[in-house]
Amino acid sequence: MPFSQYMERCLYAPGLGYYSAGKTKFGEAGDFVTAPELGELFARCVVHAVQPVLALLGSEVDFLELGGGSGAFAEAALLALAENSVLPRRYLILEPSADLRERQRERLTAALPAGVMTRVAWLDRPPEENWRGILFANEVIDALPTTRFMIRNSEVYEEYVALDGEARLVRVDRPADALVAGAVRHVERDLGRTFEDGYRSEILPQLPYWMQAIAGSLEAGLMLFIDYGYVRREFYLPERQDGTLMAHYRHRAHNDPLHLPGLNDLTASVDFTALAEAGNSAGFGVATYLPQAHFLIAAGLQDIFEHAYEQAADDAARHRLAQQVKKLTLPDQMGERFQAMLLARGLPALPLPAELLAADQGGRL
C-alpha cells in the first residue's frame, strides 16, 4: 500500500491506530508534549489574538478546534473567552477519535462552569452549513497521512509499504501516479531546481482538497494553524536527503515508521508554502505568518505571563510559568521550530493586534 495509506492506518484505524486506541498520548505520561499541555499561557495568547475577530462577527460566531488532543487547549481557551466576555455561540471540536473525544468530554465537564460547557459540541465531520468564526488547528497538519516520494533516473517514484517473504514490513518504491508526480514537479518549478537522484521527502498532494473540505463552509473568519515546519525552500533543502518523517514513542523520536505500527505517533514537518497555497485555493488570504515565539509575544505573552505570575499561589507555580515561557519561545525549544499562519476570508477589516501584523514574515513564503 502507499506509505500515506499505511500512515493513515497506523494513526487512525479504529481500535488499533495510534489516535484511536486507549493509550495516553499527550503529556508526561504519553509520547510527546504539545504547547497546550504546558499550561494556560499558549491558549490565552491565541484567545487574545483572535478575540477582536470574534467581537467583530457578533453573536452568531463559532470557534472550531481541529483535533482536541487532551482537551487542555479547549479548557484554557474557554475560560479565557469567558473572562473576556467573548464566548462564541458554539465551541466545536472536530475529533475523529472516540477515545479522545470521551477524554475531552470528561476533562471539560469537570473543569468548566455549566453555562460554558453547554456551548461545547463535538463533530464527526466538518460543518456543512455556512458558518462564521475561528478555525484553530495546533499540530494537525503534521499528522495528515503524507506521501513519500523519491527521485530515480530523474523520474518520480512513490514509497509503498509491503511484506517481504518472511512477512516483515519493508519499504519499496513504485512509479508515481500523475497526482503525486505533478505535485512534485510543481515544487521543483517553484524552487527553480530539480531534485537529484536518490532524493526522498514528503509531499501532501491532497492538501488543497483537505483544506476545501475543512474550511469550505467558513464564509467569514480566520483560520489559525500552528505546527512545526518550514517555508518550502527550507523544507526541501538539498542536504535534507530523507525528508522530515519522524516517529515518536515514549518521548523518544526515531526515524523507523515500520517499528511497532500503531504504537508510534508518525509525523512529518509542514511545508508552510504549500499550506498558504492550499488556503489561497480555498479562497483565503494569508493574514500573517511568523515563528511561534514571535506570534506569542505579539499576541500579548508578556502581559499574560505577568498577570498569571502575580496570581500564582506559590514559588513552584511561578517557576512552572517561567518554564512554560522558555519552552514556548526559546529557539532550541518550540519558539523557532513551530510556525503560526493566520488565513482570513470574508472580513470587512482585519482586526488583529497591530503587533501581530507588524511581525509578519509572509514574504519568506
Sum up the overall morphology in one term.
Answer: globular
Strand content: 15-25%
Determine Rg (CA atoms, Å). Answer: 21 Å
**What characterizes the major β-sheet?**
8 strands, mixed
Determine the mean pLDDT. Answer: 93
Instruction: Count every beta strand, where a strand is a DSSP E run of 2 or more residues.
Output: 15
What helical percentage do the residues reach?
Answer: 25-40%
What string gives the helices and strands in order? HHHEHEHHEEEEEHEHEHEEEEHEHHHEH
Gap from first CA to last CA: 33 Å
Category from helices, strands and their pairing: alpha/beta
**Low-pLDDT residue spans:** none
Specify the number of helices: 14
Keywords: Methyltransferase, Transferase
Organism: Dyella nitratireducens
Pfam families: Methyltransf_28
Protein name: Class I SAM-dependent methyltransferase
Give a structural overview.
Strands 1, 2, 3, 4, 9, 13, 14 and 15 form an eight-stranded mixed beta sheet that branches. Strands 7-6-5-8 form a four-stranded antiparallel beta sheet. The longest helix is centred in the N-terminal third of the chain and has 17 residues, at 41-57. The model has no long low-confidence stretch (mean pLDDT 93). It is globular. 37% of the residues lie in helices and 24% in strands. By secondary structure, it is an alpha/beta fold. Helix 8 packs across helix 10.
Spell out the key features of this protein.
365 residues; 14 helices; single chain; globular; alpha/beta
Please give the structural blueprint.
Layout: H1 3-12, H2 35-38, H3 41-57, E1 62-66, H4 72-83, E2 90-94, H5 98-111, H6 114-117, E3 120-123, E4 131-138, E5 147-152, E6 155-163, E7 169-175, H7 178-191, E8 200-203, H8 207-215, E9 218-230, H9 232-235, E10 246-249, E11 252-254, E12 265-267, E13 270-271, H10 272-281, E14 285-291, H11 292-298, H12 301-311, H13 315-329, E15 338-345, H14 354-358
Parallel strand pairs: 1-2, 1-4, 2-3, 4-9, 9-13
Antiparallel strand pairs: 5-6, 5-8, 6-7, 9-15, 10-11, 10-12, 14-15
